[in-house]
Amino acid sequence: MRQRTQNSCHCSNTVAMILRFFHVLALLASTTTAFVGTRRGASRPAILCSRTGRGREEIFVLGASAKSKSYDECDVAVMGGGFGGLYTALTISREAKKKGKNVSVALVDPSDRFVFLPLLYDLSMGTASEGEVCPTYKELLEGSGVRYIKASFDGFSKSAGNYNGPSEAMLTPVSKQKYPEDEECGDIIHLSFDAAVVAVGATPQSILASIPGASEFAQPFYTKDDAYATREVLFQMDQKVRQGESPRIAVVGGGYGGVELSACVARRLPKASVTMMSRGPPMAGTKAEPLVEQALKNLGVHCEINNVKEIQRKESNKFTIRRSSRSDSDRDLNIGEDDLWDAVLWTAGSGPANPVANDVGCELAMSSSGRLRVDKSLRCCFKEKISDDATPASQPNSKPKLSSVWALGDCSEIVPALQPATPRTAQAAMQQADVVASNVLAKISNREGDPKAFEFQDLGSVLSLGGPNAAILGPGEDSQLGPLFVPLLDTARAGLGVADSIFAGIINSPQIDKNGDLKPVVKNLGLSLGGYGLGVDPETTPGTLSGTLSGAGRRAIYALRMPTNKQRAYAGASAFLSSALALAKEASDQIESNNDKRR
């Protein structure tokens, strides 16, 4: 009996040892790819080290659970995949290859798609495809040498402030954000780098949160998801129109976004009542102001100058908008209780996205507007007192510490401000990307001299006026390119004015329009070469072009500004096909409507 018991215990011990052995192997296997560190980071618990081909250490943590930190590294970490971030990453990789250098670039963004923001209007109206407006990073980065990390940027560790020391960013994988209780998802990625670029952009969340009811009841228009949500709202409004109602739609914001969205909505729903609410005249102070005013009037868009103070939900999914006059924000406008709205679309204002809105850490200086403070080279600055061991003023020969972080786009602000002020547009972010890429490459190549300074170059802009029509605005007359482009646009406008007259004569001729069916269709579609049908007086809008040809030019310009040749070709083809199909459908609906009236 005793012998049998001893044999049983011996067998149990053997089984336990075997299970423990396989448990250790499983831990090693599970941590090999997920928990990787470098010599540049702080000391970390490890039992196994190996050398990579680049001479860096890989540290595998034994016994760490799936909730432990994971480590990664690169030469340049770019936080944010918008215009500024994506173009910076691609430029750094491309220029490094030209110089025969192997630079590891990581692009960090929580979304798997880049969003070409100026085309969100077309996506929401169904005149552009998702592949044209929102290509995936996988497609855009293919063959570029840039590595994509799907995670959100949480901030820097304090070591990121030391120019000569290690630098590290903290990231949260998107899988962990979606499934916080999933034990197989790592909590934090510590990304080591030699240089970092912050380009997280801006969001409307802080603005919406400051207006009671705006976050709950207003539909923002800033992202791909917003565009699809807006499309759904417009579909619901279209259903109301088909039921004989005349829905009231408010568009809050009088900048580029508000004007373009108002024009597109009015074009999409001609029987709805569209009102744009802003603190001043739409596009106030720009050369587009008279053109926009007349174009919106011709589309039937009402413009109110006021301050939106609160949005409340009423019965039957309708809303009230409490607003005050521009001159006296404390005095509410006298609005009746029957002033109800079916939808509220929001484009007014934005603030820096997280983590910039909550301080990215490592003692980087912030501007008064809550953005990262940068110098003319777009390099981040330190706060005045960064630490106890900061370089004392008594040592004039000591060089001050320089951050290893650059920032650009809507999350940054140049201090002291440049004159004229840099607009917060995609055009400016793309120009800043070239400057940042040049300075970052100089830093990691140890050949820093005088850094490249940013100077905004006004190249003009384009503006959707609904449907196939748009406006092309030349550079400002005080810009370097203004004296060249403005006369060219004026000459083109004069020529297109003559073409418009010929076009109108052909359309109105009895030989072409025998039954009078074509004229109202063309008028309702607003087809033009240089402004016919838009109600725009060319004499009041120097340095601009407007009309259907300008609409085609807008899509062509955007196609050329796509980040890769493959995407440019796709965008060009998509623009032609989707615009033609949308226009054909609109014309068909017009003809069918006219036939119904005759019956």
Automatic annotation (TrEMBL):
<keyword id="KW-0732">Signal</keyword>
<keyword id="KW-0285">Flavoprotein</keyword>
<keyword id="KW-0274">FAD</keyword>
<protein>
    <recommendedName>
        <fullName>FAD/NAD(P)-binding domain-containing protein</fullName>
    </recommendedName>
</protein>
<dbReference type="GO" id="GO:0003955">
    <property type="term" value="F:NAD(P)H dehydrogenase (quinone) activity"/>
</dbReference>
<comment type="similarity">
    <text>Belongs to the NADH dehydrogenase family.</text>
</comment>
<dbReference type="InterPro" id="IPR036188">
    <property type="entry name" value="FAD/NAD-bd_sf"/>
</dbReference>
<dbReference type="InterPro" id="IPR051169">
    <property type="entry name" value="NADH-Q_oxidoreductase"/>
</dbReference>
<feature type="signal peptide">
    <location>
        <begin position="1"/>
        <end position="34"/>
    </location>
</feature>
<dbReference type="GO" id="GO:0019646">
    <property type="term" value="P:aerobic electron transport chain"/>
</dbReference>
<dbReference type="Pfam" id="PF07992">
    <property type="entry name" value="Pyr_redox_2"/>
</dbReference>
<feature type="domain" description="FAD/NAD(P)-binding">
    <location>
        <begin position="75"/>
        <end position="433"/>
    </location>
</feature>
<keyword id="KW-0560">Oxidoreductase</keyword>
<dbReference type="InterPro" id="IPR023753">
    <property type="entry name" value="FAD/NAD-binding_dom"/>
</dbReference>
